[in-house]
């Protein structure tokens, strides 16, 4: 045995070294055997695969048009011919179906189409590209050659049907999302500064429209309520838009558990409080109330608000507390609003602070 006391790995035999002899024992195996696909051998199968990919791109285009039909043609207060509909919820269900189906077909068609194109028509053989020194002229020429090779191997030039349907799908698919994002909220946030709530307007149950007495609201209960004057507005005059802004969640808890600031002392009635249902994140409707913790939960992105602490945000992406509706009781014991909200409802736009000041000055 040799002397291993110095511990050098190259002399201890514990580590394999790469010498010329070892390199000769492991020759370059080369590229693996390439098994051609059926579309590589049979032009008819290649043509069939091309048509399949084109049909998938066409499905994506059709899905985009289905989305726009649902978005622009289906109205809650009538159909595409503006005929009054006694049941607007049926049109809402149809609209949601078309929107979801349209986006699903748009994304499915373009996604599966590209995958199928790569699997059946684009070259799948392995290749070796030798590394070379970087130089400006050679780099440009090499890059240009790579781009031309990709375009040639993709078959775009010699397959016009596939190329044209792909271009149409790629152009129309993003437009569906742009259309959808455009309607997430009003362009002018001042639209959310005022609702139908006003001094003396009664709180009524949604959807029955019956007014609510303070004695009807038991401890731990919660109601979805609207302003009574919304019942006088038709769908043609913007009923749904006004409802979306004015809808309120009414709750009752032990007054001793409420943490009320000095300027809101008279905004509740013996523990009965009312807050906007419109989440301050992106405007989703808040509908979940946990009696034990007094938390309100937005189902869209899990923003959580503490109703016992003036609906301050305790979790989630929302950046602003829910606006509170000041309430009192009238001479007959019915719950009524003291005024409109003192701040804008809905998503917390960056102009919220300025709008809040303007609303306070108007009041």
From TrEMBL:
UniProtKB keywords: 2Fe-2S, Cell membrane, Disulfide bond, Electron transport, Iron, Iron-sulfur, Membrane, Metal-binding, Oxidoreductase, Respiratory chain, Transmembrane, Transmembrane helix, Transport
Location(s) in or outside the cell: Cell membrane
The keyword Transport is annotated on this UniProt entry: yes
PROSITE patterns: RIESKE
Span of domain Rieske: 267-336
InterPro entries in the cross-refs: QcrA_N, Rieske_2Fe-2S, Rieske_2Fe-2S_sf, Rieske_Fe-S_prot
Gene3D superfamilies: Rieske [2Fe-2S] iron-sulphur domain
Residues that span the membrane, as ranges: 53-74, 94-118, 161-181
A Pfam family this chain is assigned to: Rieske
Gene Ontology cellular component list: plasma membrane
Bias (Basic and acidic residues) ranges: 31-43
Organism: Rothia koreensis
Bilayer topology: Multi-pass membrane protein
Protein name per UniProt: Cytochrome bc1 complex Rieske iron-sulfur subunit
UniProt function note: Iron-sulfur subunit of the cytochrome bc1 complex, an essential component of the respiratory electron transport chain required for ATP synthesis. The bc1 complex catalyzes the oxidation of menaquinol and the reduction of cytochrome c in the respiratory chain. The bc1 complex operates through a Q-cycle mechanism that couples electron transfer to generation of the proton gradient that drives ATP synthesis.
Chain intervals for the UniProt region annotation (Disordered): 1-43
MF term (GO), any: 2 iron, 2 sulfur cluster binding
Family per record: Belongs to the Rieske iron-sulfur protein family.
